[in-house]
Amino acid sequence: MGDLRQYSVTFYKVSILLLIVPMAKKSILSFLSSSFSGGELTSFMNLDYSKEQEDQDHTEIGKLDLPVFAGDSPGLNLGAETGVSPQIPIIGIGGAGIRLLNQMVDRVQRYGMTYPTLAVDTDNSDLDKYENISHSFHIPGSDLGSGHQYRVAATRAQDVKAEITSNIEKYITDMKLVYKHEIVFLLLGSGGTGVGAGIEIAKILIEMGKRPVPFLILPSKEEMSRIKFNAAVALYTFNYAPKDRCLNLTTICIDNDEILSKNSKKHYAQVIAASNERIASTLGDIIATTELASHAYSADLNEFLEIFRDIKGVGVMTYLHVNKPTKFIGEIVEKNISSSVSLNADPFTATRAYLYLSSAPGAISAEEYRNLMLRFDNSDIFNKLYETTNHEVEFYAIRGIFTGIDYPERIEQLMQLAEDARVEILNREIESLDQGKGNPKIDRLETDEEIEVKTGQELQNERAEEYAKMRREGGVS
Fold this sequence. Notes:
This protein is α/β, with parallel strands linked by helices.
C-alpha cells in the first residue's frame, strides 16, 4: 500500500466514513423507550448492566476492585476477510491506560486482528496482569508505582529515557507497518504514572519524529485533588501551555465524571469497569474500520490520521447504536449527541472528524445523509460505502472521533480548579514560612507548573489566527 505521504490531501475538516454492515440483535426495549430515543439505543454515556451485575458489589473497604466488565457493547460485523491489519502503534501508560489497552486488544481480536501493543508502567504488577499485551517495559525505581505523583513518574522516566526510546523503536519495528506515518496513540488515566510518564513518552516520540495522540481519562469529582491536578497538568502540557512549553497535541478526552453522573444509581466500581469496556470498544471499533475494503473512493486510514495532524486542543470519541430505528438518522443524532460523546462538548464545532456510520442496506436515504452532513458547517466530507446483504434487523451504528472542538466548559473548569488549588497550596506554604515553620513542599512547586487559564474566546481567536496564517503560507486550500 506504500507510503501515506503519496496520498496526502491538502485540506479537509471532517472525514465521514459510511459503511453498510449488519449488527447483532439486542434485547427489545419498551415502546416508550424506543419512541423517545428513536429505537433501541445504546450510547457512549448510557451503560448497560445485567441483573446479576447490578446485584454485585465489587468494592472493598480501602480498596477499589475493578472486575473485567462482563457486558458487551454492541459491535460491528467485521471479520478477518476484510483484510484489516494493525497500522497504528498504541502505547498504554500507567494502570488505567494498560487496562484500556488490554480491553481494546480483546475487542479487535473479535474482528480477526492480532494487534501488537506496548505497555509502560512504574508498577510491575500491572504489567503481569494482562495476556493481550505483546510488549512491555517497567520503569525502575519501585515495584509499587508512583503514589499518584506525576513528578515522581516523570523523573523516573527521564532517568531511563534511552531504554524507553529503545523499547518504543523495537515495538514499532515489530509491528511491520505497511503505511509509513507519524501517528502514535497513547492511552492514559490521570494517575501519577499515566500523566508523568505519559508526558515524557510524548516528548520522546516527538524527538523520534512522531506525533503522539493522548487519550486521557479525566477524573470524577470523587477523585482526590492530586488526581484532578494531574489531569490539569497533562492538558496544560499537551494543549494549553505557552508556546515554548506546550507540546501542541490533540488530546482525546473521556470524562468519567459525566459517565458516573448518568449512571449514578449503579455501583461505582461497576460503572468504572463498564466505562472502561465502552471506551476500549469504541476505540477498537474505530481502528477496525480504517482498513476496510471499498468498491469506490472513500475515507481511508490516511484521512483518519489527518484529523490528528496540525490540530491543537481537545477532541472526543462518539459511540451510538440504534436497533430498529423509528426516526431518521439526523433526528436520532441530534437528539442523542450529548450522550453519545465522551465529553460534554459540541461535536458539530469540530475542525475535523472521522465519523463511521453503518446501517442495513437502504436504511439511510441520500436526502437523510445529505442533511446530516450539512450539520457540519464549512466542512469537506469523505465517505465510504460498504454493502452486505447479510443483515437481520434495521439499525444505525455510529463511531467517530471529533478533533479541534471549541474549548469545552469541563476543561476550563478543570484547569481553573487546578490553578486555584495551586494558589491555595502556595499561600498556605508561604504562611507557614512567615510563621517560621519551614516546609520543603514549597521548594518542589516549580514555576513551570503554573497553569495559565485562557477563556474559550481567547483560544478560538488564537485558532483563527493560526488558520489564517496557514492559508497565507499555502498550508491549506
